[in-house]
Amino acid sequence: MVGLYRSAPFLTLVASLLSVFASFVIPYSRYLFSASFSWASFFLATFLPIDRFLLTNESFQKYRRIDVAICSTCIVLSTVCASLLGERGNGLGSVLIPLLVHILRFQYMTHPVAGDIDGNLHEHEKNITYGTTNVDMSTLVFITITSFLALAPNYPGASQLVFGMCSSIFAATYLSISDISIPLTRSVLREISAYTCLGLLLMSLLLDGWAGWSALGTSDGLATMIFVWSLFSAIKNIIIMVLIQQLSPINASFVDLIGILSTTLYSHTAWKVSSMCISYMAIASALLPTHIGDRRIRYLSVRLSKLITLVIALFLLSFGAYMAAKPRIGGSSQRVMVSNIGGRDSWNATIHPISYLIELHSTKFEDLISRQTTTYPEAVKEYRRRYNLNPPPNFDKWYAIATEKKAAVLDDYDTIYHNLHPFWGLSPATIRKRVSDALANPDSFLLGVYIRNGAIANVTGAKGQWFDNTLTEVISGFAQFLPDMDLAFNLLDSPRVVMPHADLAALLDKPQKSGTKNEFTKLPLEEFDIPLVRDAGSLDTVFDSFSQQSSWGHAKLSCSPDSPVKTTHIDSVNQYALSIGFIKNSTAALDICLSPSYQHQHGVFVRPEFFSIVAESVPIFSQSKLSSFGDILYPSPSYFAERAPYDLASDKLWAEKSASMFWRGAASGVHSQAGSWRQGHRQRTVSYFSSFEENCTMLMDLSELEKLNQGLENGDLLGWQGKLAELARESQSNALHENIIHKRNVDEKNKGMADEKQKAKDVDKTPEDKKAGDDKDTEQADHEFYSELSKQQEANEQNSESQFAEQSVPKGTFENYIDLKFSKYQQCDDADCQAQTQALGAVAASSNFQDTWQYKYLLDMDGNGHSARYYAFLKSRSLVVKQTLFKEWHDERLLPWVHYVPLSVGLKEGFEILRFLIENDISAKHIADSSRRWSAKALRKEDMEVYFFRLLLEYGRLVDDKRDIIGCI
């Protein structure tokens, strides 16, 4: 055992080196490389003072400066690694640096027991060591502050920077407290000091837990809450150190251990925070024997503290390796409870998750419709409530046009607000300068539209193409109400603007103001002329091209240092998914900062065909963007121009469509080179749904499985049970399949009688009526559907036998219900094109786009950017299964499970979605009908014009030199 104690520092270094090695061997564990130096410095600081504790005063003085040098080197190395690898560490700012300050101070400022075998203190020895530490203390303070400042750019904005500096100040405050409290020998004074610290500790624990919980549940004020949270954490850590020094090691450790664990578990980094606090107590316990007179007890206390700290070190390093080795996932097997959302409090396993999600989001959609204002004063009041600003000038003109065009959505335009919010952190002149530089850059791939005196004065870029013709036609419809402005439109499919998180946070911290002057300001005279194209080298705004190479490192630039993409490297699926991956929060599902696995699941991150970005806040208008980008979204010209047209006459009634999931498209979305196509989203999806020899995960009702095993009611179960799948495979015939098809067709024809009657009525309808596709009494139909759905769910909940659980089922069960094929292999080297053909099959025969309407379930996927087919699919009588990572202007008004069925890029839930849609034909048809009716009301050209008009009004105020005093009331 003595050998183990003496080798503790060596074992700690070995464990740290093993973690470095693991970072290169274990997938997705690069953060261990950075963390290893932090842990090494942490535990070296722990063991060195304990080892030196039993030395003589002469030996202590000999090793003192060596210890300072070793620990200071570890601080610098951990800081450098964290800066290079982007790992903030969570300990350097609030835990590690104050800890090392204290430990090193103990080493060279005093050695109370040196030179006395009985442990009695020699006052002259204390005075000697105190008098020789000024230089070392100054050196350590310099190293600590320098290291922190080197790491500071990785902190999220000014709030965290202030917090880090506060931690250093608190550490210095602790030194003063320690100087006063340690020499106390009177028991009364010591108890008063201890109880005072205990009271402050309890208060800080409560505040720490409250602030941490608030930070996790707050989005807009997150930076502020993190600062408050960190502030109380720093105070708490200092008080813990003082308290443990005042009390005995046993009771202090247990009391503080319970308090710390009960509060730090609120944190999303609980294992880091709590483990560091435990280490705090172990170290302080090692220091406490300085006041013990009995040499034997003091010796045992030191050894025990050393053993405890060694166990903690090995545990933390092992746990870190486990967290690093934990595989990335695209879906979750956990059943997440969602509280107080919609009409039902939470999902439970007695009802199918999709049924729950349909009801949940249907309630949200009803709320969206009901909360729209009906008068202009109400609209202005609602605007002020949402944004704490007056509307921009000419808002009254916008409202008049919106109501004239019968816009279904008048208030929900939060996308515009969030897109423009960062630019409030820049002066109007700076914004205009950056736009001017961007448009003057010949390599910018931007279309410039210049509005002067209420009309489009000039267009630069791809002039004469369908894109700018469509764009200028739309803007001309309301240009008379716009101020003079220069607009930069992105000509690439990929987004363009992404900036570091610290820069973005700084912009978002700037206040927004408005006034009551309902008039825009004229452009300065020197900016009125149209700027000329200039040499890129003379411009401040620079575009960097990373086409056909990995873009992941750039795409995650704006993610918070505390986000999963920069810390755990494990998807935070519980924030957006249920069960095996059913998306419940489409906004969070698009957030790449929550899902590190997207790096290898979507072509835009793997090897995009075109990728040109600017790393500063430049107002570039894009048709779609990734969640981490700062582009301004506007309705795509491809939707205006109907590049993917929908022909009502070619569409079929629901009952006449094939119950299959259909997709045709080119192998775009990724440039395939050296096998990179295997991580392209289109290739992954086609491969996943076509590998019929494999198994898939489905949700099985255990009560129905029992009935199936008894041979009861198996005629209406479409092979989603494992037993039925075996029967279908073993029969070597299509008899069972034909029986299922026959039963389903009979049901569909019975359900489709109303559609048959409606089709006869369609003959007499006007083209506008046909396009709208609004069936008579749709509100009554919706009411009946939701009523029936609720009854079914309540019946399932009351049925204690009904319980959904995961089951592995052969994909081959669904071979006849999937038709996904590539129409062309492109964006690939010759070898990769050939490899895709061999792996994914030959291209499908050419077909007419209008043939798409033969199928009930239409899969829509991203290409190099958003899909231009989306609106045509929504207008049809088919159901849209939507897989995307791109945000678009319409995201606020299209709800998952109401207007489309979301499919994650992880794909785990894909086959269960298909099974549910086939088995629950009424629900599937209702979603298809809802999307058709709503798109005819909210996705018309008129609706896109209304959105575009409001967007440019808001942008016009943003670039106005007097934006703080203008506004419309």
UniProtKB/TrEMBL annotation:
GO molecular function, one term: transferase activity
Signal peptide range: none
Segments of this protein annotated with the region Disordered: 736-781, 789-808
Basic and acidic residues composition bias: residue spans: 739-781
Comp. bias regions, Low complexity: 792-803
Record Pfam families: Glyco_transf_90
InterPro entries tied to this protein: CAP10 (IPR006598), O-Glucosyltr/Glycosyltrsf_90 (IPR051091)
Annotated Glycosyl transferase CAP10 domain residues: 759-962
Alphabetized UniProt keyword annotations: Membrane, Transferase, Transmembrane, Transmembrane helix
Residues spanning the membrane: 32-54, 66-85, 128-152, 158-180, 192-216, 222-243, 273-292, 304-325
Family as reported in the entry's similarity comment: Belongs to the glycosyltransferase 90 family.
PANTHER family linked: KDEL LYS-ASP-GLU-LEU CONTAINING - RELATED (PTHR12203), PROTEIN O-GLUCOSYLTRANSFERASE 1 (PTHR12203:SF35)
Record protein name field: Glycosyl transferase CAP10 domain-containing protein
Origin species: Lipomyces starkeyi NRRL Y-11557
Origin organism lineage: Eukaryota, Fungi, Dikarya, Ascomycota, Saccharomycotina
